[in-house]
Amino acid sequence: IIDKGSSVCDSHKKTKQILDDINYKTMVSFGPRTFGPRHAVENKKKVVIVDGGLPPVLGELNTDHEKEIYSQTNLYALTCHFPWKIEKDIVKKYSDISFEVLSQPLDAKTEEQFNNLIGDNSDLVRKTKERFSLGNKKSILVQIGYSLFNEMNLESNGGWLKLHEYLQANEFISNLLKSLQHSEEHPLVLLDKKVFSKYGDIISESKIDVVALGNLPNIESMALSKAVSLNVSRAMRSVTQFQLSAIGGYGVVSPCPTNYMYEDVSTKAAEKLGMIRSFPFDMNEIGSFLLDYIDSEHYHSTRERRLKSWEAMHSDYNLLERILEIHRK
After folding, report:
1. pTM flag (> 0.85)
2. How far is CA 133 from CA 53, 118, 221, in A?
3. Beta strand ranges found along the chain (DSSP E)
4. Tens of pLDDT along 79-137?
């Protein structure tokens, strides 16, 4: 473990001190920061950067996102569970970087878990429905964590969250919960327990049943996402949406915050492929929209499309195979 430095330059220094004592041929760096990759480039080692998004900035040397280092990496792997054909203006912006859209990394154990959840007769999914009393009632799992709603993450408090991103996330959840109250059907809504606590006033006045979720083991979390009627996410390229595609679950996406890591753009691309239905975070009557979408023709058609899309990415654009190919050259 390399401790974070007191500054960006200090982090570069500490990273170099540790890596100088390690003999390696290829570096695989997860995340866009260039502390590790810079050491590999300067020592003429092979380096692959893996992340779910392209670099948020293309900075100068001695920053944590160094354009010069990106341009000298062997590969910047942009993980995605569907064949996203990146738009020309984005490609042009990152023209100096050798990036490819590749599958999410998948180990044998997780792949086995996926296969056990794909079928409609999964024993774990059945038990999950019983545990959360899902029954035949429509159920909505809000797959948005607390980090976007935590004021301590705001830039003004030394965090990474911009004020407009925080406000958009809060408007979205508030709008969702309030609009569901006015729908003719009253679904079961499941969401993070910390988010539940933040919106306790709205929930206490609600006609809908809301369940606060604690941290679940990954396999139980995936089983729940398969068991509910619909998963609501903020990002199409998220791990949540990847898992849904791999196990045959159902979901919708509301890009929120907007203009963040090209999530708006990739969501539209997935929608054109018939894989997802999206909606704006500030949409009126979100609740009615979601309830009407459940069991619709488009809803049912997405399952097979998403399964086939993920299988094709895993087979033809496999991240691990690509990394090994670079390592062996």
Report:
1. yes
2. 37, 21, 15
3. 26-30, 46-51, 75-79, 99-102, 139-143, 188-192, 209-213, 230-233, 251-253, 277-278
4. 999 999 999 999 999 999 999 999 999 999 999 999 999 987 899 999 999 999 998 88
